[in-house]
Amino acid sequence: MARRGAAMSSAPFMQLYVGDYLADTLHLTTEQHGAYLLLLMTMWRNGASLPNDPAKLARVCRVSPKRWPQIWAEISEFFAIEGEVMTNARLTKEHQKAVSISQERKTAGKKGGTANALKNINAREAIATAELKHSQISEPDIRE
């Protein structure tokens, strides 16, 4: 799990489809909802997966290791475990989409900045030349 200073997700936001979420989770208690959402948000910030470590997962969910098995029994249906890694299919899909959109916007921004710089290069040179002429110290007019 990421700590301060560690790399975080390049996806700046996580969409929550409230209708879908509630349809799938109406049977959960408030405590289970909290645990599920904390896991999803932590996964989002960590590249859409978490280590399958019960002690760490309990800590993420802010429950005791003793309480964790009861919570996990109810929310485990929402996760896939592959070896040492835990994922959520919907979150993985949304995370990939958000990262892709973010990268596309980053690329478009760079292209726009480059085009703008090239378009305005002559104007900047003209302004710099004019400013140079106006800022030169003139020689005093000394008449003898």
UniProtKB/TrEMBL annotation:
This is DUF1376 domain-containing protein. It comes from Falsigemmobacter intermedius. InterPro entries: DUF1376. Pfam families: DUF1376 (PF07120).
